[in-house]
Amino acid sequence: MSSQTPPFYHAASNENLFGVSPKVTAALQDALTRLPSYPHPDAAPLREAIAAKLGIQASQVMVGSGSAELISLLVRTFCRPAQETSVLSLSPTYPLYRAEADALGIAYQEVPLDSAYQMDVDTLLAKVDKTTRLLFISNPNNPTGSYLNQVQLERLLLELPPHVTLVLDEAYAEYVRTPDYTSALPYLEKYQNLVVLRTFSKAYGLASLRIGYMVAQEPLLEKVLQVKQPYNVNQLAQVAAQAALEDEEFLSYTLEATAAGKQHLQQALDQLGIHYWPSEGNFILIDAGIQAEAIFEHLLRHGIRVRRTDDAYTLRITIGQKEHQDHLIQILQDMLAPDN
Ligand code: PMP
Fold it and tell me: Which parts of the sequence belong to the Aminotransferase class I/classII large domain (predicted)?
């Protein structure tokens, strides 16, 4: 084992640990000369760039200060504490759906994933009632890496009653490799109650700038506009996102490096006999069979921060550079199989 400890491995927030496009840093340098001006109020150039990429109209795109802001805006648009409204999602999933509902005093319902952390459309549909206004599905799902496949998505879209808006949070969609997954973007034309969320925080490497976007039909976005503040996305973020979108080469590099890193980590986990769930994201959920807290603390002492979950046995690890992952694997091996 090398005597040099690699720099801190921040494996807790699913950021892009392979960096950011050099085109982004160049665009930011240029934008720094215009700091005294307000940002573009409705982010028109960026929304047009996103729309052109997706083959839709800019009026079907809204940008937010991270997709987190858009989640908050959706809850504020569709749910009212004084009325009988509720938010529905899965469990375990991204905790912000519940946090936003809680913050506004809105009822939050959840449907557990099955024992293999897969989604079940029947159970989801059975949980929908007359109060349900929003159904959030993280697809792929954070923290499990599991996903709603095309057949399941189509069923949900067909069978969900129109008073429920289906929000497909596709924060990790760029990483997906399995052929039976589909983004919900192609279904937007047909369904008025569908929203797709995307972010620049993951594959595009812009987590620090806070920028994401939402795509839906115009009448739905007009409702959300009523609760959105002007200038919600700063100019540096707008400029960086546009440059990131144009650099397909960097995106491919990220996706390749992440896939290779995921394969490397999975092989090592197999060898160590550590259970993990197949993941379509840039992260892996593991269950080492012992209390996760002990592993978490041990890794932290060795310069690696992973993410704890609500489950006492599982931990989520963001795919990182090979040097970082090798260090992680070594520490896990020393801890869990010291006689090897
Ligand atoms: N959705 C999911 C499923 C996420 O995992 C995250 C970030 N961890 C977000 C949304 C929020 O991303 P951001 O606000 O950085 O766009």
Answer: 12-330
Q: Phi first, then psi: give them for residue 176, nearest 5 degrees.
A: -65, 135
Q: Is the ipTM of this complex over 0.95?
A: yes
Supply the CATH classification number for the domain 22-246. 3.40.640.10
251 within ligand 1 shell (Cβ under 6 A):
no
Spatial neighbors of 32 by CB under 8 A, at least 6 apart, are 236
Query: Three-state secondary structure along 235-246?
Result: HHHHHHHHHHHH
Measured CA angle at 202 (ends 197, 207), to 5 deg: 95
DSSP 3-state assignment of 260? helix
Mutation pick for ligand 1 pocket among 139, 146, 169 (CB with most ligand atoms within 8 Å):
169
Residue whose entry in the numeric block shows the structure tokens 């573009």: 40
Q: Is the CB of 207 under 6 A from ligand 1?
A: yes
Whether residue 1 is predicted with pLDDT greater than 60 in this model: the reply is no
Q: pTM score, two decimals?
A: 0.97
Q: Where are the chain's structural domains?
A: 9-19+249-336, 22-246
75: three-class secondary structure by DSSP? helix
Rounded to whole angstroms, the Cα distance separating 115 from 45 reads: 45
Cα 60 to averaged position of ligand 1 atoms, centre (Å): 20
The model's pLDDT over 269-322, given as tens digits with 9 standing for 90+, comes to 999 999 999 999 999 999 988 999 999 999 999 999 999 999 999 999 999 999
* Ligand 1 atom 6 nearest Cα: 171
Sequence-ordered list of residues with C-beta below 8 angstroms from that of 48, at least 6 positions apart, any chain: 58
Neighbours of 98 (CB within 10 A): 18
* Residue environment code for 233-261, b if the CB has 16+ CB neighbours within 10 A, otherwise e: bbbbbbbbbbbbbbbeebbeebbebbeeb
